[in-house]
Amino acid sequence: MKVVAFNGSPNKEGNTYHALKMVADELENEGIEVEFIHVGKKVIRGCLACGSCYRTKDERCIGEDEVNDWIQKMKEADGILFGSPTHYAAINGTMKSFLDRAFYVDTANKGMFRHKVGAAVAAVRRSGGIQTFNQLNNYLNYAEMLIPTTNYWNVVYGAAPGEALYDEEGKQIMRLLGKNMAWLLKLKENGKDIVPEPEKERKIMTNFIRKDLKEPREK
Questions:
Q1: What does pTM read for this prediction?
Q2: Cα 144 to Cα 26: distance, rounded to the nearest angstrom
Q3: For the chain: N or C, fewer Cβ within 10 A?
Q4: What CATH number did the domain enclosing 72 receive?
């Protein structure tokens, strides 16, 4: 089995990397291969909302850059790890641009990531880490991925690179996440021929605009 881990930090071996590495160490201890991809050092533009991926359904974004290679790595992997630093209480821009495009392509192609095991971690100096963690989880949840848990929110604390290694509670959180992710991956692998997957349902889309109103109401 294989997990692909995406490091969204501009720093190759900053605290986001160390958080991912702590999870990866536990996965590797269970015989699961982990590949790291450094997203944060790339120049990745955001989604253009052009709808090309819906028209072609070729599992590609119209933007010809590394994102298309990463999408295929995610498709082929058994599990996916996302890590982001916290910028203004949110995912950093490069990571969000990548995720917006990758998951839009996933939706357009009827859920390539569905029922893969996925987890997210965040690194933060002081505040905003939980918001970043929640934003990362939005992608996993929307794609119907299987999300392992731990004993707290998946956030490590540190400012200078490597300071997360002194966050004892954060280290335990990442360690347990790795163990639980490995367990869930093995459960899924060993049960795939025994317990059938739920059938995928067609997405119901609604909004709050009443189309029966021909003219906007005045206040």
A1: 0.94
A2: 24
A3: C
A4: 3.40.50.360
